[in-house]
Design brief:
single chain; alpha/beta; 15% strand; binds NADP nicotinamide-adenine-dinucleotide phosphate
């Protein structure tokens, strides 16, 4: 993480998830990182994407603690007790579309609104964890309507925010980041424990990629290996 200043501060949103927890642990073990703050639905302050006001309130509370050099949103949803990803048009419902967009798109949009102002002005990277299945161009298999569309919309929000944030903070780097398949609760019903890699490994790869990013990369959709992904 040598592109970040010695004593850098990091903020992980969705810090209770498989990937979020691994980000917190990896950054805590990094001697250059002075502080890692992890927020989730049970933390103080609380961050719940089903409660819009909690997003601005959390940012407000952290504002007083100073700027962050690295902010990562690792919250997201693919399935819940109420639904699994759609296989066909006949599975589509407002309920699933709304629940998925709330966590994968609306929450992160409000994160961009409230947390981009917390980025350090010398070195500030804000990554939203997206997914390659949100790539419109790369969609060959179909299915997973809500999840795919929520991540495609997230990518548009990130790109639009990157253009605006750059005007006020030219050093800021905003990206959508594809983590690859990772063994977590989210991927478990889809053989994630067989085809995925441990979150610890995925997070090392993603941190190395984030370390390589510079202001010219703002607005990009990148994979954990640093390659540019098609929209
Ligand atoms: N795992 C993969 O293979 C994979 C592949 C591509 C992309 N991704 C993306 O990576 C990100 C992290 O996923 P993961 O694999 O770590 O999944 P995970 O272990 O299921 O973690 C999901 C996280 O999202 C949080 N969350 C869910 N609903 C929320 C809400 N309403 N408000 C705030 N937080 C909420 C969860 O909080 P609680 O602990 O409170 O439930 C948890 O922290 C997601 O955006 C996912 O789409 C994952």
């Amino acid at each position: 993480m040598n592109s970040f200043p010695d004593g850098f501060r990091a903020l992980i949103l969705g810090a209770s998830g498989g990937i979020g927890q691994a980000f917190v642990q990896s950054l805590q073990a990094n001697p250059r990182c002075a502080q890692v703050v992890g927020l989730h639905r049970q933390s103080h302050p609380r961050l719940d994407f089903d409660d819009e006001a909690s997003i601005g309130a959390a940012a407000e509370q952290l504002h007083a603690t100073g700027k962050f050099h690295l902010i990562i949103n690792a919250a997201g949803v693919l399935h819940t007790a109420d639904f699994m990803p759609e296989k066909k048009l006949g599975d589509l419902s407002y309920a699933q579309l709304e629940a998925t967009f709330r966590v994968n798109t609306f929450g992160p949009a409000l994160v961009l609104r409230h947390f981009s102002a917390l980025l350090d002005r010398q070195r500030g990277v804000l990554a939203v964890i997206s997914a390659k299945v949100g790539s419109i161009e790369d969609n060959r298999l179909g299915g997973w309507y809500s999840y795919r569309a929520s991540k495609a919309a997230l990518n548009m929000l990130m790109k639009t925010a990157a253009i605006e944030v750059k005007r006020g903070n030219p050093q800021a780097v905003l990206v959508s980041l594809h983590p690859g398949t990772v063994t977590t609760g989210l991927s478990k019903p889809f053989k994630g424990d067989q085809i995925g890699r441990p979150a610890r490994v995925a997070v090392q790869e993603m941190l190395e990629t984030l370390n390589q990013l510079n202001p010219a990369d703002t607005g990009a959709f990148v994979s954990y290996q640093g390659e540019r992904l098609p929209w």
